[in-house]
Amino acid sequence: MNDVKKIHVLILDDDQFTLVVHQKLLANLGMQNISVADKAQQVLAMMDSSQAQPDLILLDLNMPDMDGVEFIRNLGGREYSGALILISGEGERMLQTVENLAGKHRIRVLGHLEKPISPLALRSILETWSQSTASKKSSGYSAGYDAEALREAINGGQLVNYYQPKVAVATGKVVGAEVLARWRHPKDGLVFPDQFINLAEESDLIDELAFVVLGQALVDICKLRESQQRMRVAVNLSMDNLHSLSFPDVVASMVKKAGFAAEDLVLEITESRLMQNYRSTLDILARLRLKHFMLSIDDFGMGHSSMAQLRDVPFNQLKVDQSFVHKAYANPTSLAIYTASKTIARELGIECVAEGVEDRKDWEFVRKTDCEIAQGYFIGRPMPVEKFSEWHAEWEKRYASNFEDKLLEKSDTC
Length: 414
Ligand code: G
Ligand code: G
Ligand code: MN
What we know:
Low-confidence stretches: 134-142, 410-414
Number of helices: 15
Number of strands: 15
Radius of gyration: 24 Å
Strand content: 15-25%
Bound molecules: guanosine-5'-monophosphate, manganese (II) ion
Strand order of the largest sheet: 6-7-9-10-11-12-13-14
């Protein structure tokens, strides 16, 4: 993508005039390898006969023969590995639904644009694409690890904890950090959790992983507290951690040994699939709460992280999923869900955390809407423990100056 001229872009639209206009627009952005088609079938036939796929398709959703949704389904069947930009005159919610659907087919959607498309908006989508392909390359991970390699990594100290700060919105005070596990792979560099958490769950390694992460977190946070004020630490748990009835006792003994207060450990629980054994999961969660650990419902509003969970489990913190926070000020659907989640937390008398506070506008939004705690790239990215104190000092300066100084840009790179 760095060489814009070489990217093969295909414009698919049943309207001839739109084809001409969009072709011109892309040419103005420096693109030289552009093809056009007015029928989806034509594109699929071309892909089948030449075995070649465009790098990017600008896809009109409303087409009389095969519509955009059907076309995406067919692309999914052909394991299309390029990207899509959705174009339509339909409203935002429809575009988002289709964007989601494409994700289910493992097709990357760079964004969506309403007709007539604005050259500026198109350029900004393309720029973000080029940046993200560049950063993917530099992280250099390769998918498909096996359980043995992961077991070695867990036992051999290859897992490292990264810490993402959480701050009180009203005062800017740092209240804690969430631990996000990383695998420092000897060959592939830093590997992210989406590459190994599922594997750990499937190969019965998730308990070992959780204990290593928690053990390291207790050591790191105790060290940090020597130089800073009291801080909570939040550890992510998988539902698969909650089937062994002795789990709360193991956690309690680790925390006690570290001289850590139970109420300073937050356990963030996400449920990506339906609970297998609801009775023992509830037993474990209830006992964790009895021992005064904080229980946080993570990614609230997504998957099975639902109202029923909130009713059944004694959670005392709710984390609104980032998809309802980032840019919520500009999206009426997200805004409605964010506001309702905040109301639920308030009615239940539990803390509310907004995740995904990615830029200054998101920060202003959570401040205006009185959310208690915020977390996101605008405040700080996940970082190794050695970086935390430096980040903290910088954050205090940024906050004190109301983010007017140049340090603002720095938050994107730490
Ligand atoms: O770290 P990233 O920034 O990519 O996190 C991706 C997801 O991985 C998050 O949703 C988080 O809940 C999950 N995750 C990160 N660390 C851990 C961990 O130690 N245990 C479990 N179960 N999930 C984790
Ligand atoms: O456990 P949970 O699903 O909440 O994990 C948080 C995930 O969100 C991690 O992968 C973390 O790196 C990511 N994240 C944290 N802050 C931001 C943000 O401001 N923007 C985006 N896009 N992702 C974020
Ligand atoms: Mn989390």
